[in-house]
């Protein structure tokens, strides 16, 4: 696993790491159950403050990408693809709201399609 942080980037180091971990998991380079380096070890390897790496891990855990098992360490989550899971949750929330508003399926799909294209709904 090759991680790096660009100190000249306008993107904060914790976010650079978060995105790299997310991409490694999405590509399958980090598989379910894979153990991650300890916060201290990764911080030392990258020349970062331990709090920076700890924040990365907290963000990844919040996103459902990793899970921390106390003193046993942090591991790639076994809860499936977090992006897909979050998209399913968003879709379910949207569908529930659309039903409450009394909007039909075809109109709802048209609204989503327009939104994904960045266009105003007609």
Primary descriptors:
mainly alpha, elongated, 2 domains, Arc Repressor Mutant, subunit A
> Tally of extended strands?
2
Spatial extent as radius of gyration:
19 Å
Helix-strand category: mainly alpha
The CATH C-level class name of the largest domain: Mainly Alpha
Distance between the termini: 47 Å
Please indicate the count of domains: 2
Oligomer type: single chain
Low-confidence stretches: none
Quote the beta fraction.
under 5%
Helix content: 55-70%
Q: In DSSP terms, counting alpha (H) and pi (I) runs of 4 or more, how many helices? A: 5
CATH fold-type name of the largest domain? Arc Repressor Mutant, subunit A
In short:
It holds the Pfam family GntR. This protein has 122 residues and is mainly alpha-helical. The protein contains five helices and two strands.
Descriptive notes:
Keywords: DNA-binding, Transcription, Transcription regulation. This is GntR family transcriptional regulator. The chain has two domains: 13-76, Winged helix-like DNA-binding domain superfamily/Winged helix DNA-binding domain (Arc Repressor Mutant, subunit A), CATH 1.10.10.10; 82-117. The protein is mainly alpha-helical. The model has no long low-confidence stretch (mean pLDDT 90). It has helices spanning 13-27, 39-46, 50-62, 82-101, 105-117, and strands spanning 66-68, 74-76. A two-stranded antiparallel ribbon has the order 1-2.
């Amino acid at each position: 696993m090759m991680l790096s942080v660009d100190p000249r980037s306008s993107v904060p180091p914790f976010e650079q790491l978060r995105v790299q971990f997310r991409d490694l998991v999405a590509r399958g380079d980090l598989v379910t159950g894979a153990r991650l380096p300890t916060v201290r070890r990764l911080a030392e390897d990258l020349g970062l403050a331990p709090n920076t790496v700890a924040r990365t891990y907290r963000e990844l855990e919040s996103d459902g990408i990793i899970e921390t098992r106390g003193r046993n360490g942090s591991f790639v989550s076994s809860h499936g693809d977090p992006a897909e899971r979050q998209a399913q949750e968003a879709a379910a929330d949207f569908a529930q709201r659309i039903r409450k508003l009394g909007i039909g399926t075809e109109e709802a799909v048209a609204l989503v399609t327009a939104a994904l294209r960045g266009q105003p709904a007609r």
